[in-house]
Specification:
By secondary structure, this protein is an alpha/beta fold. The chain has one domain: Spore Coat Polysaccharide Biosynthesis Protein SpsA, Chain A, CATH 3.90.550.10. Helices cover 32% and strands 22% of the residues. The strands form three sheets. It has a seven-stranded mixed β-sheet with strand order 5-4-1-6-10-7-11, with helices on both faces. A two-stranded antiparallel sheet has the order 2-3. Strand 2 and strand 3 form a beta hairpin. Helix 3 packs across helix 5 and helix 5 crosses helix 6.
Length: 238
Amino acid sequence: MTDVVGAVIPAGGSSRRMEGRDKTFALVLGIPLVAYAVEAVLACPAVSRLVLVLPPGFLARGEELSRARAWGPRVRLCAGGARRQDSVRLGLEALSATGGCDWVVVHDGARPCLSPELVAVGLKAAADTGAAVAAIPLRDTIKQVDRGGWVVSTPPREQLRAIQTPQIFRYDLLLEAHRRVGLDMTDDAAMVETIGGRVRTFPGAADNIKVTVPADLVLAEAVLSRRSLGPGGAGGWE
């Protein structure tokens, strides 16, 4: 892929399930959680620019982190909105101020165990359809239930996937989706689907976990400590 590739990392969640802890800057092996996501995306050679979206009150802290990690001009910070989709849209619009791009990688700031190789796989998968998302097969049987807890149906497990990030899109396609879809959605791919776009899946990674509750920080630390590479310094993505 020779087009210009940008990235948006939304990291503006409320951390309401973190028992009062802010997960964005929570330390994992001594490094703020969000730094892992940023530096894994930057380590993909195809990505030329990145916007990190933070809550308005955390921008100064983000700038301090950017200087400490020596991210340089490839990384720009912007304030997020009330919903995740608002934050992604603001990040997309901020990308245009950096010179624009043809493709955009969207990755959750709360997924620190991303590998640069997974980003590259996603870019290749998106080249045909304009949209591709990381996905893994479900291990458990899924039941659809009603409000009373009674089972309504058992969907075939082999046809279901758990969706992760990164998600990769043609920039114009995703921006159009964000500007046209006003309903609350937690997934960028669903917004593209809503305006008629086709989304392809590519194999995600079981250890590409999302930090949602405090116990997830322990899991993330275990995953990252097993790797020979991690963000920055002697253990940095190279």
